[in-house]
Design brief:
By secondary structure, the protein is mainly beta. The chain is 13% helix and 37% strand. The structure holds alpha-L-arabinofuranose. Alpha-L-arabinofuranose (AHR) binds next to loops.
Amino acid sequence: MKHVPLASVSRFLLATAIAALPALAGETSISVDLGKTGHQVSPLLWGVFFEDINLSADGGLYPELVRNRSFEGDDALQYWSIQSADGTDSGKCSIGDAKPLNAHNRSHLRVKSASDSVLENGGYWGMNLVAGDEYLFNVAIRGSDYKGALTVQLCDASGNALDSGKVSGIGAKWQVHSLTLKPSKSDPAGKLRILAPGGGEVSLDMISLMPAKTWKGHGLRTDLAESMNALKPAFFRFPGGCWVEGDDMAHAYRWKETIGDVATRTPRYNVWGYTATQGLGYHEYLQLAEDLGAEPLFCVNVGMSHTESEPMDRMGAWVQDALDAIEYANGPVDSVWGSLRAKHGHPEPFNLRYIEIGNENGGPDYAARWPLFEKAIKAKYPEITLIANDWEGSHPKNPMPEIVDEHYYETPEAFMRKSTLFDGYDRKGPKVFVGEYAATKRAGQGNLRAALGEAAFMTGLERNSDVVAMAAYAPLFTNVNHRAWNPDLINFDSSTCYGIPSYHVQQLFSLNTGDVTLPIEVRCEEIAQPEPSGMIGLGTWNTQAEFKDIRVTALDGRVLFRPDFSNGIGGWTFGGNGDWSVKDGVLRQSAAQPRVRAIIGDKSWKDYTVELKARKISGREGFTVLFHNQDIEGRTSWNIGGWDNRYSGLGLGDMGERKALSVETGRWYDVKLELAGNRVRCWLDGKIIHDFQRPALTTKTLYASATRDTNSGDVILKVVNTSASPTETALDLKGLAGATEAKATVLTSADPSDENSLKEPSKVAPKTESFAIAGGSFTRTFPGNSFSVIRLPGVKK
Ligand code: AHR
């Protein structure tokens, strides 16, 4: 299992910026001195991070409608249904590799049927067919004595043809045939059907169906690209994340395999559980950054994957890849790589200026590899800004990077507390790129509370944007049918999409940045966090495991839950792409997929013990017991044999601990947890592994920041009210004389656990109102659980 490194604490040297003071009895106030200015807000502060995770490229932004178009690797015949015309499996279709389409696309589909064959592909949980729109069908075909023609149909979900065309003239050599099809009716769950009459053999490859209309004509799904564009990102980090690293070096990202003819791009199995076509390749990422008007930020592999590092004497190729990537993006059209960029339709340079070396890598291997890149890139391209991962501390002699990337996945409350994290950072050290952050724990599938936690954190990023140069929420997208990571900013299915409440927070910050900070003082109350409660659960990560003899008992002795599975696995809620079954009273999880879990119980269960037996059957890790979770997305857990079966990890949302531990395959373990208030104890085979006492934690009612937009003179105040009740607040904007009309945009909802969904995409959405103020001192009541952006127009210094 992959986990983010913790930020280095040694950088907490200076204390500056916000003054947050306890409220005098009953008084909550915010004061801003309009006569004084702080520092420049980083112009690159709010950007986006795109990773091919959760089927966000294939099946999402890259609108190939056919799933498994090229029959490579593990996908083989997957996602295709192949039958003879009478409805029985013809059994005459197979994967062929003789005389491939090209050297990089070795496999194809052989249809050997003597009788008629019907091939069907339903895409990524349905193809979005829109009546009257054009769809471009392409296929590479090679026949062997094949006399007939293929019929290609766009069908609705029930199989009725909505348009069709014929592919004829099939010769003995590979040839690409194209059709333009126009469905007569719309169906978001459409499919593609190919009818191959018998009478010879035909080989098919690169079977593709794409909408003709794409965003800015550059091949991307319009609604998804527009939802990203509406965030007005200042930068665009790509292509990952863990995707860049790969589980091993053989699966690490190589940009050179992702350019040019899509038929020659190597599909790659990625850490998020699917094979990616790489149709969204390096060139398309650069083009997308340009179309978004965002600074491209390319993250290269540093020669390290999740499980391996490239030997030092083979690092030359990886460093050269980074240099060549820069030449591809920026080099003259007569350079080796620049000429390819021109050939691919973009003679002008893309102006790539930011390169990140590695993702979440650290330790001695990173320390040895970072300087190789630094030296080579700075020697040839001194103008490129380099971003490092875990740089500080582990290798003091290495050159200091301009920017260091830090990632945070926390509870909403931890984000609130982290609003002051950067106040004390050393202003002489590297700048910070908060390259990934999101409330992932106790956050549902992205609820209002999570968004408020992030908003509180973001007030701190903005206030400290002299040192925090850039920040991006992560991940950006998920196909709702393949949620490998949760939450995700933009959720979509085949035809629609919506932003979670955090999306609105991101957008409100981005559209209301301002360019200079204003000193702000907030007086408010502290809120004590309640003791944890919630359901239990079981989980695995790329591992098959079994569980039995499960018993949950309240500390007062009442048995809360004791399943014997005689009625199967009814009542459990499942998450991830697991495969659960019951046999002889034993619950088994058989899928080798990341973050598989099943939960059951009551949200109000508080002080209790969990006892069970668990054994690992096969795979990379051990097993996980969940507790105190409010829903299937909860992450409070004891991970026994996590991190490639190297550690026991207690994850309590805001905190936890890790100890060295591995589990044996095939051995039943006795697992016991005791949860009493803020104390958690865990035993394995009767031996205590964790005894953890959470401190009582607090958060504040209000978090706020203030900036000015110099061009318009607007003063922009951002205020997060984390309390459940409306908070009457005395505002004092020193230096504001006279009446003015202010504008407030407020994001709130009836309950902090409220979420948006495909059915209710705008349940939690901002609303804007105007209000008059008589002068700089006024009172405003911030609704409970709200984020407000207040703009005071044209207030000159
Ligand atoms: O954003 C999801 C993942 O979280 C990224 O791939 C990785 O960098 C981090 O661990």
